[in-house]
């Protein structure tokens, strides 16, 4: 199992006259963990359903493995859906089936594997999410956190290249949410699949993803490396990350500008963004995430295009292993090594010769001596260095022919 790039261009979705969002464009990097934030009612879950072809957009494209899911045939779409694993908000387990049969269901439905092969795969996936020994329990007999993990195991059985999480923290207390976040990071290290998480949990957004996007006012306000949003000075970002009432987000919809300004004036000085938390690392013994190196190279290439605050945060995150300067390094200029050899020397006018004429030297130029420290002039010295043929012997009267 390995991650795949998902490229979304100009996606728009409406229900009748109600526009949900328009012109959404983003690229999910292969194998990385991305988070999609946004106020309630902005269409985050609709976006997930559109990605897997359950809803058809009015405009735009979703390209995976060179195929546009929006315009491909039904048979091709059916095959591409097998690339996805989905964890729904409530786990979406069949209440009449025990956990083993719930997790085995996709294998029995979409493959021709034998029951012994299915048994092996189910046991492996249940071990990955910490449910070994709970195979015979019914969904109504377990906690909400266990139902989430069972749903996640079912999402993994077909070895998907893309895993979508629709509010995995829904209904969980902060401690169980923290355990689930660590499980997500560990699974990404083990599978190298591409993850997209829709969440409202600020701690999840701060500690889990490589990339963060935010839906707001029926469009994608931003999407990129996590440091871009977590250092953004946009009022909506500060309000959302701080979980406060003052700001442009209202109870049921966005506030108008005047109302938001009045509230901010009444509140006075408000704290800015919360301090950035370090990203979660895989548990000991799980292994490194392969996406870390790919993300580092990708971020390095785009670093100069990011806001200054994001650049600073990225460099601080890589302080233990600094990012190299993306500008090409030119080698320093070096002086050529000294050239030693016989040198020309003018000994002045030679008695008996006519005055100097152009191109004809009355001065007797000749090899006078060998100077090992002499740097020869390549424009004049035809034989620089001691390896050339020996010079003619010096003597008065010798001149150029």
Number of strands: 12
Q: Write the CATH fold name of the largest domain.
A: Rossmann fold
Can you list the strand order of the major beta sheet? 6-7-8-3-9-10
The total domain count is 2
The portion of residues forming beta strands comes to: 15-25%
Topology readout:
Elements: E1 6-15, E2 18-28, E3 33-37, H1 44-51, E4 59-64, E5 67-68, H2 74-81, E6 84-87, H3 99-110, H4 115-128, H5 144-156, E7 162-166, H6 174-191, E8 194-198, H7 202-207, E9 211-216, E10 219-225, H8 226-230, H9 235-242, H10 257-267, H11 291-302, H12 308-317, E11 341-349, E12 363-371
Parallel strand pairs: 3-8, 3-9, 6-7, 7-8
Antiparallel strand pairs: 1-2, 1-4, 4-5, 9-10, 11-12
Q: Which key phrases capture this entry?
A:
401 residues; alpha/beta; Rossmann fold; six-stranded mixed β-sheet; four-stranded antiparallel β-sheet; globular; ABC_transporter-like_ATP-bd; ATP binding; nucleotide-binding
Give an account of the 3D structure.
The chain is of the alpha/beta class. It has two domains: 293 residues, Rossmann fold (3-Layer(aba) Sandwich); 67 residues, no CATH class. Helix content is 31%, strand content 20%. The strands form three sheets. The chain has a six-stranded mixed sheet. Strands 2-1-4-5 form a four-stranded antiparallel sheet, with helices on one face. Strands 11-12 form a two-stranded antiparallel ribbon. The longest helix is centred in the middle third of the chain and has 18 residues.
């Amino acid at each position: 199992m390995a991650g795949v790039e998902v490229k979304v261009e100009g996606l728009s979705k409406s229900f009748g006259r109600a526009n949900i969002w328009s012109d959404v464009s983003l690229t999910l990097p292969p194998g990385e963990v991305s988070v999609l934030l946004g106020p309630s009612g902005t269409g985050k879950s609709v976006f997930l359903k559109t990605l897997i072809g359950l809803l058809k957009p009015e405009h735009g494209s979703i390209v995976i493995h060179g195929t546009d899911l929006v315009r491909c045939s039904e048979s091709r779409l059916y095959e591409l859906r097998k690339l996805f694993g989905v964890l729904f908000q409530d786990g979406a387990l069949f209440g009449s089936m025990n956990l083993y049969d719930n997790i085995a269901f996709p294998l029995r439905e979409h493959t021709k594997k034998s029951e012994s092969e299915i048994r092996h795969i189910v046991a492996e996936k249940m071990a990955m999410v910490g449910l070994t020994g709970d195979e015979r329990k019914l969904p109504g007999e377990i906690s909400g956190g266990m139902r989430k993990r069972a749903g996640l195991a079912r999402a993994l059985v077909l070895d998907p290249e893309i895993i979508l999480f629709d509010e995995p923290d829904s209904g969980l207390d902060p401690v169980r949410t923290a355990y689930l976040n660590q499980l997500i990071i560990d699974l990404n290290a083990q599978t190298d699949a591409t993850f997209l998480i829709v969440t409202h949990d600020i701690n999840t957004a701060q500690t889990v993803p490589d990339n963060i996007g935010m839906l707001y006012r029926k469009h994608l306000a931003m999407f990129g490396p996590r440091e871009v949003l977590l250092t953004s000075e946009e009022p909506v970002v500060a309000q959302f990350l701080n979980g406060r009432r003052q700001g442009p987000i209202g109870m049921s919809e966005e506030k108008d500008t005047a109302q938001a300004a009045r509230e901010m004036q009444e509140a006075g000085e408000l704290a800015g963004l919360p301090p950035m938390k370090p990203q979660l690392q895989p548990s000991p013994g799980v292994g490194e995430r392969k996406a870390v190196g790919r993300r580092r190279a990708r971020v390095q290439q785009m670093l100069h295009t990011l806001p200054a605050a994001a650049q600073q945060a990225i460099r601080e995150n890589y302080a233990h292993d600094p990012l190299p300067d993306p500008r090409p390094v030119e080698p320093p200029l070096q002086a050529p090594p000294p050239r030693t050899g016989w040198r020309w020397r003018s000994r002045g006018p030679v008695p008996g010769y006519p005055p100097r004429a152009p191109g004809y030297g009355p001065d007797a130029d000749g090899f006078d001596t060998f100077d090992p420290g002499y740097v020869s002039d390549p424009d004049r010295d035809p034989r620089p260095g001691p390896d050339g043929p020996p010079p003619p012997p010096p003597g008065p009267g010798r001149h150029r022919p």
